[in-house]
Backbone:
């Protein structure tokens, strides 16, 4: 057998840069983000041709200020789904955290402290989801279906249906301040995306996440603490949902008990459209960002095209199914390309 | 007293599962750089014996010596830290992950650590992964190919390369040739011989004697939880062992 000699080694990057035209095509087709990007591009063209104002400076600003709130939630879902679990309670946590924040402030807590405390509430809710799921060994779908109802009910119980007054003494610049047409929330979205991408793709913890979601038995056999990995992601997911909820409450200057209703479905749709697998172990954060753009752009584009707003859900449904079909189909075909 | 000729020695191992006796008084040893074939029918106790050796559960009775020292494993982790690596066909790899990420799964190389996060040293992992693969004679194009794109034999090769790279002393292969084509099986046998050439001991579990016989230095036969045969290859033949396995 060949013994590993320095000369026999493949140098780093070799075989990757010598890719032919065909194999770089194959590479692009195999990317999980490709089909959602293509759809996004088509949707933008279609809406622009129907309603040219769709790409006006003002409207682009409107789209960019609503995307981060969905996007940040969807990024959390993506991380958790890659680790092989699920969270349906993000919409409820999205409402629960800002309401707790407002409540803390009416109790006289310093605004900054109240925000931090509310975020810790989010982390605690995620930990609860994770612990119940892992200790009792039940599907997270069930746990979080339950906690979705519990925290939505909790929000209504706490507020009695009447939102606590949004504290006016506090500055909202850091989360939603405006520079031209851009809001600070977009900056936070970019920061969160980059941080999570780094954790997922460039750290050992990210490798454990893919392993845990991809083959739990193998991961455990190689000494990975799969329960710790999952618990951390449950907490991260709920934290991000709470963070996004606080951003929205800052933007709207109010905390409504109905905030985030149905958000869990949009976030899951954005994740799946972006190429993340429901089965765990496979997914990309950039895909989820594209998915979030797609959903909010369809939402906004239908309004600009003066279509009845009922069409929104129909289109999101079609987009979700189409994205997964495209993804599966295109990748299967691309794998068969010889190169 | 302990015999230092062996890397690992299990003595008088007993194991019961809720009243059913899975192993009764089995003695089992593996020498240095020795390939031991472990054969027997389904339910003979092969996997119970191996799970005890790899730390999945403790024996109810009996002792385990590794490199001359008595050991009690309370988890697979402990056994692995000593250099006992078990490769289960189904559970060895994450198919949707790249070869490189599979090789370093749970033992990643990092440039620096930030709290409990390690910043992966990807260039070094690429290089070391290719080195590890070439160590078993596997010449794959890129360490970034997904494991699901590999053949069954190549997957076994990656798992064996991983064990070799992390300086395992004993590699336990559970049915490594199951569901593989003839050609692929031959490849796996070649990997096992490569382990021996590098001085690593291995246990080759299979119900297919025709795979075990050509490569094993010694063949141990289990039946109904007891050891009924322990032969050097020269002393026996496939026919003799088959008879032994079928008779009782």
Residues:
């Amino acid at each position: 057998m060949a013994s590993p000699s320095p000369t026999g080694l493949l140098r780093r990057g070799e075989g990757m840069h010598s890719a032919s035209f065909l194999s770089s095509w194959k590479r692009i087709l195999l990317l999980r983000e490709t089909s959602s990007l293509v759809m996004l591009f088509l949707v933008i063209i279609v809406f622009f041709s129907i309603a040219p104002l769709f790409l006006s400076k003002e409207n682009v600003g409107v789209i960019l200020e609503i995307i981060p709130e969905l996007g940040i939630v969807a990024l959390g879902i993506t991380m958790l789904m890659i680790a092989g679990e699920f969270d349906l309670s993000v919409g409820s946590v999205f409402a629960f955290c800002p309401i707790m924040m407002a409540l803390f402030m009416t109790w006289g807590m310093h605004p900054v402290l109240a925000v931090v405390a509310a975020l810790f509430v989010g982390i605690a809710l995620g930990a609860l989801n994770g612990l119940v799921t892992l200790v009792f060994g039940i599907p997270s779908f069930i746990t979080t279906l339950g906690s979705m109802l519990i925290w939505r009910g909790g929000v209504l119980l706490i507020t009695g249906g009447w939102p606590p007054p949004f504290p006016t003494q506090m500055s909202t610049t850091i989360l939603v301040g405006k520079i031209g047409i851009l809001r600070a929330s977009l900056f936070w979205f970019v920061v969160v995306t980059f941080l999570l991408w780094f954790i997922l793709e460039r750290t050992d913890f990210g490798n454990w996440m893919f392993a845990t979601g991809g083959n739990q038995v193998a991961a455990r056999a190689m000494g990975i603490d799969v329960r710790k990995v999952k618990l951390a992601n449950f907490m991260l997911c709920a934290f991000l949902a709470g963070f996004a909820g606080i951003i929205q409450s800052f933007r709207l200057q109010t905390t409504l008990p109905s905030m985030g209703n149905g958000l869990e479905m949009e976030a899951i749709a954005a994740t799946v459209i972006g190429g993340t697998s429901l089965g765990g172990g496979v997914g990309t954060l950039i895909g989820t960002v594209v998915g979030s753009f797609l959903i909010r752009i369809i939402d906004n584009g239908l309004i600009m095209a003066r279509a009845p707003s009922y069409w929104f859900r129909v289109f999101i449904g079609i987009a979700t199914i189409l994205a997964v079909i495209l993804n599966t189909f295109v990748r299967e075909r691309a794998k068969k390309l010889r190169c | 007293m302990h015999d230092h000729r062996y890397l690992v020695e299990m003595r008088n191992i007993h194991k019961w599962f809720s009243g059913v006796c899975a192993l009764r008084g089995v003695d089992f040893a593996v020498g240095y750089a020795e390939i031991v074939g472990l054969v027997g029918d389904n339910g003979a106790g092969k996997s119970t014996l191996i799970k005890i050796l790899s730390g999945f559960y403790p024996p109810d009775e009996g002792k385990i010596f590794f490199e001359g020292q008595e050991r009690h494993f309370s988890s697979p982790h402990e056994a692995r830290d000593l250099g006992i690596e078990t490769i289960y066909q189904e559970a060895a790899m994450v198919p949707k992950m790249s070869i490189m990420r599979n090789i370093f799964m749970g033992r990643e190389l990092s440039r620096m650590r930030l709290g409990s996060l390690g910043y992966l040293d990807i260039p070094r992992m690429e290089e070391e992964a290719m080195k590890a693969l070439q160590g078993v004679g596997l010449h794959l194009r890129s360490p970034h190919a997904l494991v699901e794109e590999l053949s069954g034999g190549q997957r076994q090769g990656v798992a064996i390369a991983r064990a070799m790279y992390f300086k395992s002393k004993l590699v336990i292969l559970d049915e490594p040739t199951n569901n593989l084509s003839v050609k692929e099986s031959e490849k796996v046998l070649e990997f096992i011989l490569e382990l021996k050439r590098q001085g690593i001991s291995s246990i080759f579990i299979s119900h297919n004697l025709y795979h075990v016989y050509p490569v094993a230095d010694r063949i141990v036969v289990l039946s109904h939880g007891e050891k009924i045969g322990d032969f050097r290859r020269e002393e026996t033949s496939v026919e003799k062992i088959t008879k032994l396995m079928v008779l009782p």
Remarks:
- Chain A touches chain B at residues 1-4, 8-10, 12, 15-16, 199, 202-208, 210-211, 214-215, 217-219, 221-224, 281-282, 335 (CB under 8 Å).
- Strands of chain A lie at 178-179, 182-183.
- Residues 32-334 of chain A form a domain with the ABC transporter involved in vitamin B12 uptake, BtuC fold (CATH 1.10.3470).
